[in-house]
Specification:
single chain; alpha/beta; TIM Barrel; 5-stranded parallel sheet; 3-stranded parallel sheet; 10 helices; 12 strands; DUF3473; PuuE_HpPgdA-like; Glyco_hydro/deAcase_b/a-brl; DUF3473 domain-containing protein
Length: 287
């Protein structure tokens, strides 16, 4: 079993649950081409790692994944994890109208709630696609009764990010009004005056283990928490791969072979819980 860190702070573990072909690069069709994926095996690996280390997580599940793998979604909930929405078909939120976004999230929420028998409390946009120009889309989540959003990455990249967004959990303001839901932004570290991610996706695969652990310890030492996020495909170097241009291929697949052991080491080094559990414990979230 894991050893708690020096302050036994509750960091948050999250997974974006989608197939190997779900991506949002320009001109890319999200179609698996009939190939058999390793999805079930990778999900069992992730759930097994959580069991072995006593970790709880938030699984942001696509609605179409719920339709294709209902037994997997039920198992996630049965093992005490937080099942949240990742939308229905991995469409970029800022390419949808407000109404289409609302309907997309609602469709996914309905599917997941019917599968688990429990309310869906949270949402994360595919590819962090809540940005400045569609920040008001958070109002749709409030209308749907969701309690938290985890879609904002306080960085600037060519794909996503709101670099000046708050880096702490807060209730966002839209149109001068505070929304009745929490924003749980992705973790960043400040390097030369610039926010950089360190604990999820490409950043998790890029930075050495000691850098990530040092950043988590620094956050915990100042009373903050870190959020880890990964996709099932990122723990499996043998999974099918998309044909991508060099830059996108580097971002999407760099060091996939080292992700599983790095994640397992972190889960044994720190205490991790789900977003819903963290908000219930430290804020006034009602489940």
């Amino acid at each position: 079993m894991r050893k708690p860190n020096m302050q036994d702070a509750a960091n948050m573990l999250t997974f974006d649950i989608e197939e190997w072909f779900h991506a949002n690069y320009e001109g890319l069709a999200m179609d698996g081409g009939g190939k058999d994926s390793h999805f079930r095996a990778n999900m069992e690996t992730l759930l097994g790692m959580c069991r072995d280390t006593g970790s709880k997580a938030t699984f942001f599940v696509l609605g179409c994944i719920g339709e294709q793998y209902p037994d997997v979604v039920r198992q996630i909930a049965r093992e005490g994890h937080d099942v949240a929405s990742h939308g229905y078909g991995h469409e970029l939120a800022y390419k949808q109208s407000f109404e289409a976004f609302h309907d997309d999230v609602k469709k996914s929420v309905d599917i997941l709630q019917n599968l688990t028998g429990k309310p869906v409390l949270g949402y994360r946009a595919p590819s962090w696609s809540i940005v400045e120009r569609n920040l008001h889309y958070l109002e749709a989540l409030e209308t749907l009764g969701l309690k938290y959003d985890a879609s904002i990455f306080p960085v600037r990249t060519f794909l996503y990010g709101i670099p000046d967004a708050p880096t702490h959990i807060h209730k966002p303001r839209v149109g001068g009004r505070e929304l009745d839901l929490y924003e749980v932004p992705m973790s960043v570290m400040n390097v030369a005056g610039r926010n950089i991610g360190y604990s999820g996706g490409f950043y998790f695969r890029f930075f050495p283990r000691f850098v990530i652990k040092r950043a988590i310890r620094a956050a915990n030492a100042r009373g903050a928490e870190s959020i880890v996020y990964l996709h099932p495909r990122e723990i499996d170097p043998t999974e099918h791969k998309l044909e991508l241009p060099p830059k996108e291929r580097f971002i999407h697949y760099y060091n996939v072979g080292g992700t599983r052991s790095k994640l397992e080491n972190l889960l044994r080094s720190f205490r991790f819980t789900s977003i819903a559990d963290h908000l219930q414990r430290h804020f006034d979230l009602e489940r």
